[in-house]
Amino acid sequence: MFCTLTDLAAYKNTKKRLMGVDLGDKTIGLSLSDLTWTIASPYQTLVRHGQEKAFQAMETLIEKDNVVALVFGYPLNMNGSEGPQSQKVKAFAERLGTYVAIPIFLWDERLSTVAVTRTMLTADLSRKRQKEVVDKMAASFILQGVLDALKRIDPE
């Protein structure tokens, strides 16, 4: 179920998308890659109304959008160790893996939400608008990091 970046690279020419996931306690930010795995775009923010409903919603979107793999933001501590939030992400991803039969990649996303928030402040977005888009923007930031890393990998 969990895969490496090299494993993920093997799916690049399938003409299917990657989905980025920024898991929060109340919401799930989602992003999608284009079919060439060049650009990540913010997609949706799901409100979490229980794990089962979240899994069902994600399963529907994965099928609808022709997603070949999931990229979860994995919030490690600054020293690289796992903390409570990274353990929550891993447990959620493992459980989701019983619903969807696609690879899941965990990407070190330290400071992604901070970077996105700074960008939105620079863009002078209102606090209300920031709240509406921060999760899917963070998911896009996470996914773009993976897409950029994949450019440096030859799957052969």
Highlighted features:
22% strand, 5 helices, Nucleotidyltransferase, domain 5, alpha/beta, five-stranded mixed sheet, 156 residues, 43% helix
Based on the coordinates given, report the CATH architecture. 2-Layer Sandwich
| Poorly predicted sequence stretches spanning 5 or more consecutive residues | none
Strand content: 15-25%
Span between N and C termini? 21 Å
CATH superfamily: YqgF/RNase H-like domain
The secondary structure category is alpha/beta
Tally of separate domains: 1
Walk me through the topology:
Layout: H1 5-9, E1 17-23, E2 27-33, E3 40-47, H2 51-64, E4 67-74, H3 84-96, E5 104-108, H4 112-122, H5 127-150
Parallel strand pairs: 1-4, 4-5
Antiparallel strand pairs: 1-2, 2-3
Overview of this structure, please?
43% of the residues lie in helices and 22% in strands. The chain has helices at residues 5-9, 51-64, 84-96, 112-122, 127-150, and strands at 17-23, 27-33, 40-47, 67-74, 104-108. A five-stranded mixed beta sheet has the order 3-2-1-4-5, with helices on both faces. The protein has one domain: YqgF/RNase H-like domain (Nucleotidyltransferase, domain 5, 2-Layer Sandwich). It is globular and about 35 Å long.
Give a brief description.
This protein has 156 residues and is α/β, with parallel strands linked by helices. The protein is built from five helices and five strands, in the order H-E-E-E-H-E-H-E-H-H. The chain has helices spanning 5-9, 51-64, 84-96, 112-122, 127-150, and strands at 17-23, 27-33, 40-47, 67-74, 104-108.
